[in-house]
Automatic annotation (TrEMBL):
GO cellular component: membrane
Protein name: Flavodoxin
Cofactor(s) the record lists: FMN
Residue ranges occupied by any Flavodoxin-like domain in the UniProt entry: 4-150
PANTHER family in the cross-refs: FLAVODOXIN-RELATED PROTEIN WRBA-RELATED, FLAVOPROTEIN-LIKE PROTEIN YCP4-RELATED
GO molecular function: electron transfer activity; FMN binding; NAD(P)H dehydrogenase (quinone) activity
Organism: Limihaloglobus sulfuriphilus
Lineage: Bacteria, Pseudomonadati, Planctomycetota, Phycisphaerae, Sedimentisphaerales
Pfam families in the cross-refs: Flavodoxin_5
InterPro entries linked: Flavodoxin/NO_synth (IPR008254), Flavodoxin_CS (IPR001226), Flavodoxin_dom (IPR026816), Flavoprotein-like_sf (IPR029039)
Length: 158
């Protein structure tokens, strides 16, 4: 069965709540998906999933260093993530506070790994964003992204 992995870093719970909503939707979409804090995640874990979704709070318009460290450590698996499905999400405090640049930064790294990224013409285009604690709009975007990742992954891997 195709597997998914949602990885997040979160200090005050906002990004974690997004991760949980995305994970639930991926599981409902038929992808056996685990949700892990980045502190519990190793580069080896990236190999075990066909879809990897990474979320970070926005720190100065960029991903948190904890997420970047995992990505930098994933150089040990370089070439082995080629063709997997990737996605990203972020929480910030301000509108225009850089959540999309954070997502783009994560997606850039996943592209270097050779991963497949799907945009969204109707929902949050780059990936779900939330201002602070995810409200119903943000949770809807998280569920939508989870469904879309699951659908694409099952199309590619089953
Ligand atoms: C070091 C630091 C830098 C931050 N930089 C930004 C920023 O550039 N733009 C913004 O809108 N929010 C910024 N924030 C706010 C967080 O992105 C926001 O509170 C986020 O929802 C926290 O997510 P969490 O609850 O998952 O930890 C920053 C917070 C910290 C601690």
């Amino acid at each position: 069965m195709a597997k998914g992995l949602v990885i997040y870093y979160s200090r005050s719970g906002n990004t974690k709540a997004m991760a949980e909503a995305i994970t639930e939707a991926m599981n409902q979409g038929g992808l056996d998906t685990e949700c892990k804090a980045v502190a519990e995640t190793t580069p080896d874990d990236l190999l075990g999933a066909e879809a990897v979704v990474i979320g970070s709070p926005t720190y100065y318009g960029q991903m948190a260093s904890e997420i970047k460290k995992l990505i930098d450590d994933s150089v040990s698996k370089h070439g082995k993530l080629d063709g997997k499905v990737g996605a990203a999400f972020s929480s910030s405090v301000n509108t225009g506070g850089g959540n999309e640049t954070t997502i783009s930064g994560i997606l850039d790294c996943l592209l270097v790994h050779g991963m497949i990224i799907q945009g969204d013409p109707q929902g949050d285009h780059y990936g779900p964003v939330s201002l602070g604690r995810p409200d119903e709009r943000a949770l809807k975007q998280c569920r939508r992204r989870g469904e879309r990742v699951a659908k694409l992954t099952l199309q590619l891997f089953t």
